[in-house]
Amino acid sequence: MAPSEAMREARRIAALVQPSSTSAAELHMLHLAAALAARSEAARSASGGNAETDVAWSRLRDWPEGVEMEEEAVKDYYRRLKFIHLEVETKRLFLSDTLPDASGAEVLYTREDVAALEEAAATLKSQMKARKALVRDLRSSIDATCASLLPTGAPSTPRRRASAVPSAPGAWDTLVSDAEAAQGLMREIGDLELDLARLKAAGGAETGSAMGGKRASSRGIPMRGTLTRDEAVQTFDEQIEEMQSLETAYAACGATFETRKKDLTAALRAVERLNVELRVAEGYAAEARRAGLDGTRDMTVELMCQGHSSRLEVLKACLGLENLSAPDSKTLRATYATRDNDAVVLELRYAQAGGRLLDFMLSSPTGDALLDTLAPLDSQTRAAMQAALQANDVPLLVQTCIGCIDEQ
């Protein structure tokens, strides 16, 4: 089986087996099968399709444990091969030292050669011993020098010195204590010089300082050269504390400024939003004033009513209507005058205001039905009226009714 076919077979088996019905051993075998397929592809690509170097995948397909066994065998083989390589390399070096070289001269070691080599080895060994003795002597001298600087009876190693009890002071301790005493004397001399300079300044003498002997009392800064070391340190600490308080106040002011800036930005946005809402509200108010919602006359509605009244008057004059009324929102009633000065009422009923026409009726002003009289059921006029009703064609229905009334 080819490596690609083995991989497809492993994937098919992994897809058919559900995790809920698969044991740990079966899952392990499936993983081994997938690894076998991947290794088969790598082996085929490395061998270039050589059948002699290919593994018997058809035999290992149903036996995944064989891959592990083969891997252990290969590891053992390479361990043995490494040992053989080292052994062969050692023999080669030995033979190269003992066999004749490229010139053809035979290499032979006589007793004199062996004795000379032993003597050279003994000389080198004695030199090494001498160097070791010299190192030991130098270390002893270094330890002695350290012991002379350390207190009497002090241990030689740092760990022992850390746990040892203090004893009599040594040369090093004496030197350190003398240096500390000298530093203390120098500080005292400096303080005395400052006290002397302050006394001279209090007596009116010039101090010769860069400030010209003047005291900046307005700023609370002492005169230069008139403070002792302790007073200078105290003044310096006070100035540091004051600077720290100023920095804290400055940081607080900066945070307050950022907060106020954000509040101002939010307030400006709110003002802009309110201005937009104000303009919209003013538009609504103007529209309400035009509509008369504030108790005044609605000029728009009045103009629309006047236009409708004018169009109704024109319509009544053109159609010969005596009256046009609407008893309710779904009924329209028109009264026509005939040639013999009689009146016929045409009533149109709608499904809803402005909707589809449901029915019509022709009657007298007293309520007597005239539809069957003016347009019998088997007449063409009645058929045309019904067709106009079904087509929701109100103009055609009105025109047909007017023609029927005029014919009578």
TrEMBL record:
Domain of life: Eukaryota
GO cellular component term of the entry, any: kinetochore
PANTHER family listed in its UniProt record: KINETOCHORE PROTEIN SOS7
Protein name: Kinetochore protein Sos7 coiled-coil domain-containing protein
Span of domain Kinetochore protein Sos7 coiled-coil: 76-148
GO biological process, one term: attachment of mitotic spindle microtubules to kinetochore
InterPro entries documented for this protein: Sos7, Sos7_CC
